[in-house]
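Hi everyone, sorry if this is the wrong subforum. Our group has a chain we'd like a structural model of before ordering constructs, and none of us has done structure prediction before. Sequence below.
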Amino acid sequence: MLTLTLYGNTLQTWLTAAFLMLAMLAALSFIKGLIVKRLAAFAGKTKNDIDDLLASMLAQTKFWFLLALSLYLTLPFLHLPGEITRVIGKIIITLAFLQAALWGNAVTSFFVGRNLKAKMGEDEVGVATVYALGFVARLVLWAVVLLMVLDNLGVDITALVAGLGIGGIAAALALQNILGDLFGSLSILLDKPFMIGDFIVVDNYMGTVEHIGLKSTRIRSLSGEQLVFSNSDLLSSRIRNYKRMYERRVVFSLGVTYETPYEKLVRIPALIREIIEAQPQVRFDRAHFKEYGAFSLNFEIVYYVLNQDYNLYMDAQQAINLAIFRRFKEEEIDFAYPTQTLYLHTNTPRFPFRVHETMPGQVAKS
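Answer:
Right subforum, don't worry. Here is the predicted structure as tokens:
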């Protein structure tokens, strides 16, 4: 009975090969379980990520892969026809490709999970970026594995890849606007020109970024309405991100009358510097007598607010303006206002006189 021949091997040889395959399968399953258990226990005691990754990959090792590996190790004990050997070889290689895809998916999931844990609750844009990159990585991985499996099974993937390329070009032309917004979204997520919560200005529109999606970005304007920009249109615009402004440069001017004495003109820059330096979170830069205006002597003042908060800037500017008004009043320095002097001559030389044009509500002086 044991000498019965089947496909070039005796029944005894078949039974021996089956016993060896089962023994190898049991040994491989035992080794896998032992290593996974030991690695999991060891990973809990260390801060190294490598052991966590190895444990995650081994946990994804499937029973059917161990069975295929045991069969592959048993084949040398059998003498099978070439056609059967080739079929079994293709099946084993296909299962090996699928197992490799699962290992690659485990690696991707491990890094995605680790980055999500680091960014969750702190960086919503970073979370979206991790999700998007993880999806792309898995898509590429399984596409490559599928092509390798088809090639192993004898399918001509050259024509398939060429067809996919032509189809991809046609689809890209038909969906170029959508794809433009999609790639714009990936560009925003990776390059991070702005993040959720940033206050930005786009052309004549301004507001706080609320949401960054695959096709559009939504901004809440100062007046309350929601502005929706397509990602491709947003990236082609000039964007000013005020959230990343570490300090605000402020330039303002004031003018005094031409009747101001020289001694008081000289004192004005130092007086303004004293006022600005008395303000909190403000750094004085300069104050200069800049120019002779049409009706005033003009001073230009520059200082920095050491915070990007707009309300803080307005509070500081208001305090500076009030302090300048009070000090100028104490020093009897007059602010200039728009005036024009007209000289009128009559035929009688003894009656020349001047007329000052003033702004509405102001008193003319002659």
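For your construct planning: DSSP finds ten helices and twelve strands in the chain. The mean pLDDT is 80.
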